[in-house]
Amino acid sequence: MTKAFATSDVGKAREINEDYFYISYPNDDPQLFILADGMGGYNGGEIASKLAVTSAKNYILTNYDKNKTEKDDLLNLLKSSIQYANMIVFEKAKENLEISNMGTTLDICLIYQNKAFISHIGDSRIYRIRKETIRKLTKDHSYVQQLVDEGKITKEESMKHPKKNMLMKALGCTTYVEPDVTVHGFINGDTILMCSDGLTNMVSELEIREIINDNPADATKLLVQRANDLGGNDNITAIIIR
Predict the structure, then answer these.
(1) pLDDT value at position 166?
(2) How far are the Cα atoms of 23, 40, 52, 93, 102 from residue 98, in angstroms, in the given order?
(3) DSSP state, 188?
(4) What is the pLDDT of residues 201-237, one digit of tens each?
(5) Which of 20, 103, 176, 190 could hold 170 in an S-S bridge, CB 3.0 to 4.6 Å?
(6) 4-133+168-241 maps to which CATH number?
(7) Separation CA 14–CA 92 (nearest Å)
(8) What confidence score (pLDDT) does residue 155 get?
(9) Is the pTM of this model over 0.90?
(10) What is the chain's mean pLDDT, rounded?
(11) At residue 69, does pLDDT exceed 90?
């Protein structure tokens, strides 16, 4: 049985929290965890993130039982749920000029038979901590990540790049999106962290791993507190699954 903990905070620089998340209860089937980091003027980000999480969750819960036996079916279910949520957010954005530029990241993690099924779009992240190793399971859909991939800047330089928040993919901004879908082992003793960039822009991966390993019960609160201590430049959300 998995246990999950979550903390979300507005941070020190923003007026509203545009992050939104969903976590399953311990005995739920499926074990489902979703995180979105919204963007857009006049409450647009707040609307986009909540709508994306709710739409994806409902899609998965409606279609889960007939897709849960095969790995490819589960991956396709998560992919389709993001594409469905994209359609919902995109159509909503067209209703009102004030939210016409809204969009969101979206990360989904479904735990099934000792595996983590992941679907991802944007620059929120999912990590797996296994003993002393922290591994990023998602790849940022950002301009800066593209520069790193092309060898034009280093990973260290990307942390301070002025365009680090420019996304190459987001949900709700175009009629069609192609999310990443992957599956990873999730064994006893592992920890999965889902987080918005309000955490990873402030706190290093090394320190994130140390906080999680040293504080099993309070890690999400301490991660958010640490990001705020270092400036809290954005909304901060952390979900931990054990």
Answers:
(1) 87
(2) 30, 9, 18, 9, 9
(3) T
(4) 999 999 999 999 998 889 999 999 999 999 999 999 9
(5) 103
(6) 3.60.40.10
(7) 24
(8) 82
(9) yes
(10) 94
(11) no
